[in-house]
Design goal:
- There is one protein chain.
- This protein is an all-alpha fold and 117 residues long.
- The protein contains 4 helices and no strands.
- Helix 2 packs antiparallel against helix 4.
- It is globular and about 45 Å long.
Length: 117
């Protein structure tokens, strides 16, 4: 994995959350996913700007999100990816991990909030 792959995945996660947010019939899930897609966008943008300030422009490859995704399962997979980022991305530094940890914390908070729906 590299930074461009991680950032592309975070942008994908934002869209998956927005799609699920619009499809749910649960008000609690609707609000939890809204908080996630609003928050993850700022975190992803911050990480991209830090990386590009340090290494130069990235070539992002943001795929169209898969249709009809189980958002809870998707978010659990994203958490596993974020937890592994420190070992998988060459050159990762503590200040990168701080931003990645913010994405992980938001993801776990969202998983919790989704249990309330």
């Amino acid at each position: 994995m590299d930074f461009a792959t991680l950032i592309s995945k975070l942008f994908e996660a934002r869209q998956v959350a927005h799609n699920a947010h619009l499809a749910t019939r649960s008000y609690a899930a609707h609000k939890a996913m809204n908080e996630f897609y609003d928050g993850i966008l700022g975190i992803t943008d911050e990480l991209a700007e830090v990386i590009q300030g340090e290494f130069g422009l990235l070539t992002l490859n943001v795929q169209a999100p898969p249709a009809n995704v189980d958002f809870v399962a998707y978010l659990k997979e994203l958490c596993a990816m974020l937890k592994a980022a420190g070992q998988m991305i060459p050159g990762v530094q503590s200040y990168h991990l701080n931003i990645i940890d913010n994405a992980l914390a938001l993801s776990y908070k969202t998983l919790y909030l989704l249990t309330l729906s």
